């Protein structure tokens, strides 16, 4: 690998999952910034530079080898960025991303992002390892979930609290969840598109949660539907706390109905989940169209 512009060190070799750098003479451990700028992932616990499990950068590959279209000034494109388009100024790609489109100024694309875009806006963020997600307009929006669409992003210097301004962002996100169960009544969590059975949340945030839920059987004419709502607060530790949750049954198919099937919003540690129960002697499919409105604070909030 050649030297990235502005650096006198570069990755030299991989030792397990750890990336060793060199200054051309001696092997050294890089700083967090050097590690991320070259497209790798920083392990804060152990203080080492590691491979990115989703998108590792080939040490033998030249910096920025790929087909990118950069339109605008002062854009910072990290190592391992390929097939991406930037239109604007002062946008930053940390590295190891592919097929990303950014339109606007001062936006941040973190490591390991694939097939995602910031359609328009300023100071928005595509977080680490986000896949197939889109930010549409606004300022300060943060995408942290695969296959989500973030609408808005409204950044303000904040409300006054004890004469101190506390900046925050408000935004709305939408994504799908699903689950298939066969011959079981076990309480089971629905999955998001990447296979995770939990919903990522932002620290220091308040969430207004709505999910349009439906259960269908092998006979597509049989269904039950309803709306799951909830209020969730998330502290600086990233643990969601459920304030309220209600499921409102909306209706059944006219023939062979499921009855008043119920969905639940639950929390456990850092995880927020939608759960439901299957039906004995039958295969059923559960879907949920989830809409989350969030207020995300820049500083710690007291819950």
The helix fraction, in percent, is under 10%
The overall average pLDDT, rounded, is: 86
Summing up helix and strand content along with how strands pair, one would put the structural category as mainly beta
Distance between the termini: 48 Å
* Low confidence ranges: none
Give the beta-strand count.
Answer: 25
Strand content bin: over 45%
Order of helices and strands: EEEHEEEEEEEEEEEEEEEEEEEEEE
What would you say this structure looks like, in words?
This protein is mostly beta strands and 303 residues long. Among the domains are: 69-155; 172-295. It contains one helix and 25 strands. The protein has one helix at 32-37; strands spanning 10-15, 18-22, 27-28, 41-43, 48-50, 69-71, 76-77, 85-87, 92-93, 98-103, 108-109, 114-122, 125-126, 134-139, 142-143, 149-161, 164-182, 187-189, 191-192, 205-217, 223-234, 240-252, 263-268, 271-277, 283-297. The strands form five sheets. Strands 6, 8, 10, 12, 14, 16, 17, 19, 20, 21, 22 and 25 form a twelve-stranded mixed sheet that branches. It has a five-stranded parallel sheet with strand order 7-9-11-13-15, with no helix packed on it. Strands 1-2-3 form a three-stranded antiparallel sheet, with no helix packed on it. Strand 16 and strand 17 (164-182) form a beta hairpin. It is elongated and about 75 Å long. The termini are far apart.
